[in-house]
Amino acid sequence: MSTQIPKQTEESTEAETETEPASKGEERRAEKRRRAAERRQQRPEEEAEKAAADESTVELKVFRYDPQVEGKQEPRFDTFHVPFTKGMTVLDALMYARDTYDSSLTFRHSCRQAVCGSDAMFVNGGQKLACKTQISDLEEPVRVEPLPHAEVTKDLVVDMEHFYEQMEAVEPYFQTDEYPDGDLEEQRQDRENREKIKMSTRCIWCGACMSSCNVAAGDTEYLGPAAINKAYRCAMDGREGEEMKQKRLEIIEQEHGVWRCQTQFSCTEVCPKDIPLTEHIQELKREAVKNNLKFW
Amino acid sequence: MHEHDVVVVGAGGAGLRAAIAAQEAGADVAMVSKLHPVRSHTGAAEGGINAALRDADSWQDHAYDTMKGSDYLGDAPAVEALCQESPEEVIRLEHWGMPFSREDDGRVSQRPFGGLSFPRTTYAGAETGHQMLHTMYEQVVKRGITVYDEWHVMDLAVTDEDDPAERTCHGVVAYDIQSGEISGFRAENGVILATGGMGQVFDHTTNAVANTGDGVAMAYRAGVPMEDMEFIQFHPTTLPSTGVLISEGVRGEGGILYNSEGERFMFEHGYANNDGELASRDVVSRAELTEVNEGRGIEDEYVHLDMRHLGEERILDRLENILHLAEDFEGADGLTEPMPVKPGQHYAMGGIETNEFGETVIDGLYAAGECACASVHGANRLGGNALPELIVFGKRAGRHAAGEEMGEAEIETGRSGDWQPADYEFGVEVGETSGSGTAAADGGAVATDAESVLGGAVDRAQERVDELLSRKGRNHAEIRSAVQETMTDNVNVFREEGRLEETLADLREAREAYKDVAVSDPSRTFNTDLIHTIETRNILDLAEALTMGALAREEFRGAHWRKEHQERKDEDWLKHTLVSWNDGEPELWYKPVVLEGENKTYEPKSRSY
User: Which residues form a coiled coil (chain A) (predicted)?
Assistant: First the structure.
């Protein structure tokens, strides 16, 4: 078989004869390839018209902005009609729209499996990871916008610098001075303690929580749920020791730390990794109170 | 221009470890990566890190398993370095706070993995890579190492002597995705490529969209040979609709594979009578596709992986992430039903030719991790051996580049020692197409002093970007998908001569088409159209070299299966395949595998599981 680069002539698909198909699976794959080749042959405009008329397409309204390109300097929404396929995610639909209709459509994405944290967006009014949000679960038209409360760089891309700065403000690294003797000796950690920090270690730095937080929107110095969760991850890890925990509590008790949280649970609701962020913040508040009473 | 002692390209596991090691050795280090470090695909690794930690285990056993798994195409000095140093590196990660899964006594847990004679795979649930990536990034933050994130490295600044072995690398040229600015990065001591996998050469892959093999392609065009490119690992358990990985940990914990007849085919059809589901990955992938091809697949496409009998408690404790992946990306509930799985491209055993310190044939240019080929994995990588490779060889390359004395390398690079030319006729023209112009080509530099070599490389990169942005032409996306489709159809688990030849012809067409490529987004701000267009050129070069190797290697070894050649041919093929770019006229050659280890020679044995 030969997968053709699209040619302007009709017969290139016709000429795409198969070697004897070995199985039904192979036939199905050949069919898939044939459709793909056909798709590539059509011009984007024709494709768009056909798609708009078709009921099995999904309508996307996507936020567009580019500070440099004429016509995009004023934010606007573009509409794309994307053929729906079973299991299609918002990311799949965006990639289709980009590769088929408009290659300037810009968004971050990489792993496609909810672990790189690149593609948090505002989908139908909620912070979501585009790669794990099924189109079939959404009302149409699907409205896709960049994360609120962050500066828009272009289209769906926001500036993450502020988020990274807050993460780094909590000394987001494991610290201890007490290591076991011997180069090949690990620190012991009981299963309960590992379980205690497990959810907090799942953070993928996507920024959905920070974007959803009203407090963070009003107070740009507020550490925010993700950074406080990172502090929780370290403070609750028994391997760091008591002295370090004191230091951690001091960091999160600062003016723009845990006490700013108004327990609205918006961060917990949007977290794509199901981290109980608000609970973690509350627990740190309790720890801080206990700690202060101890020295009182 | 930016100046540092060591420049690390890529910020996944190998890059982070290299940067930390180079800094500890006293170097001023910068990391340059097209993604923010925590976005790197190391984060998607699930299963674990092999390390002989316990008294009943030994690095020698780990080395033996790895050599057998490699089908005797691993180079012993690299394999032994991996196995000797993995335990201390794993403990170092633990000391840096990595949240490993634990035993009742509080020690790090280990589980069985395919092809291992001892349960030596340490892990953190089924999200080991995520925990490892974040733990190492924490250390980079702690140490204040400079990170240029969302800078796409376009080219290496290398001198232009005729013999690649006489060339020197003085730095890299990178494009700031945020601003569109192009800048030179001078590396006084060395450049370390740690750019990861090349899964985007295929269309059904566990790899990220960003895994386009940029480092391998850049090194190749600068004169470094690509080694053993035909050896691609197809992971036996990926979700059929997306290619999302289902960890080998599921089978390590006792998960079972069934065909449409409900048969446990690994045993019932005799693919691996001893190890069953835990045979080496190449063996299991072929078994699954054979079942499908013989009509015992489900929906003619996949098989079932069942873990229900492990019980909810054990699954939640050790494999919870798998439940989320199966649910979110295939709509399957792993607690109540078997999960559909099929083989998918997962890992490139081959890559940039290096020795056991990560040095390439070009002075000052290093590579570590998946983009490199030392070779640790030979013809097939064992599960749980990729993550230790990142930390062991990342560390080695970092130290060496920072100037630490590490002794003489046993593995030779370039055309030294017993290399031999290949006499294979491809029938299709390969390499640079004529008249491709500056937009499509990356030529060699014209000067030898560092300043002008780097300056020249910056100028060429600028010209290339300007031309791609200003001219009219075709979108790269159609070319990329044509390459991915032909590779997935023809250079997959099962390979035959005719179809491999057709693939080379398809790739030729794609190269011709790429001559007319253009970027329609005119913006200098976050122009991903431009970045993807540049990546597609890299994909093209890699796909071609991979297919050349697959055609020339007329035997069946490890992950490389050939219809016409159904046996391993040790007399002719105990050797590595190398492809040199040769300024646009790719040339294939061979060098012998190194089977002599520190205290023993690994004699090839038949490989059964």
Answer: none
Q: What residues in B contact A174, CB-CB < 8 Å?
A: 96-97, 135, 138
B135/A174 Cβ within 8 A: yes
* Rounded distance between C-alpha atoms, residue B433 and residue A27, angstroms: 34
List of chain A residues whose C-beta atoms are within 8 Å of the C-beta of residue B526: 106, 153-155, 157
Asked if residue B559 and residue B447 are part of one domain, the reply reads yes
Q: What is the mean pLDDT of chain B?
A: 95
- Cα-only R_g, chain A: 25
* Co-location of B340 and B443 in the same domain: no
Residue A160 in contact with residue B36, Cβ under 8 Å? yes
Annotated domain spans of chain A: 42-150, 161-176+191-294
Tell me the pLDDT tens digit for each residue of A218-266. Answer: 999 999 999 999 999 999 999 999 999 999 999 999 999 999 999 999 9
Residue that finishes a domain, picked among B346, B379, B413 = B346
Q: Does domain A42-150 have CATH number 3.40.50.300?
A: no
Environment class of B411 (CB within 10 Å of its CB; exposed 0-12, middle 13-18, buried 19+): buried
Whether residue B38 is predicted with pLDDT greater than 50 in this model: the reply is yes
Contact B587, B580 (CB under 8 A): yes
Full-model pTM: 0.93
CATH (domain of B491): 1.20.58.100
Interface contact A96, partner B, CB < 8 A: no
Q: Is B590 helix (H, G, I), strand (E, B) or coil?
A: strand
Instruction: Please give the pLDDT value at position A296.
Output: 57
Which amino acid belongs to residue B372?
Answer: A
Who contacts A77 (Cβ-Cβ below 8 Å, separation ≥6)? A61, A62, A63, A64, A143
Set B17, B167, B281, B537: catalytic member? B281
pLDDT value of residue A20: 46
User: Is B68 a domain residue?
Assistant: no
Question: Chain B residues with CB inside 8 Å of A112's CB?
Answer: 208-209, 242, 244
Nearest residue of chain B to residue A238 (CA atoms):
B97
Convert the pLDDT of each residue in A26-53 to its tens digit. Answer: 665 566 566 656 655 555 666 666 666 6
Record: contact B131-A201, CB cut-off 8 A: yes
* C-alpha–C-alpha distance, residues B139 and B133, integer Å: 10
**Residue A252, min C-alpha distance to chain B (Å):** 18
Mean pLDDT of chain A: 87
Q: Percentage helix, strand, coil, to 5, in chain A?
A: 45, 10, 45
What mean pLDDT comes out for the span B320-326? 93
Q: How far apart are CA B609 and CA B602, in angstroms?
A: 18
Among residues B538, B558, B14, which one has the least CA distance to residue B226?
B538
Q: How far apart are CA B204 and CA B343, in angstroms?
A: 9
- Among 3.50.50.60, 3.30.470.10, 3.40.190.10, 1.10.1060.10, name the CATH number for the domain at A161-176+191-294: 1.10.1060.10
Q: Using alpha carbons only, give the angle B89, B215, A163 rounded to the nearest 5 degrees.
A: 70
Predicted local confidence at residue B609, as pLDDT: 85
Q: Is residue B25 part of a domain?
A: no
Per the CB < 8 Å rule, is A173 touching B97? yes
In our burial notation (b when 16+ CB lie closer than 10 A, e otherwise), range A240-265 reads: beeebbeebbebbbeebbbebbeeee
Cβ–Cβ of A204/B526 closer than 8 Å?
no
> Residue A10: pLDDT above 50?
no
| Distance separating alpha carbons of residues B590 and B580, to the nearest angstrom | 11
Q: Which two tokens stand for residue B547?
A: 């297919």
Do residues B44 and B160 lie in contact, with contact meaning Cβ atoms separated by under 8 Å? no
Interface confidence, given as ipTM, is 0.94
Q: Is the pLDDT of residue A12 over 60?
A: no
Nearest Cβ partner for B99 among A86, A106, A197:
A197
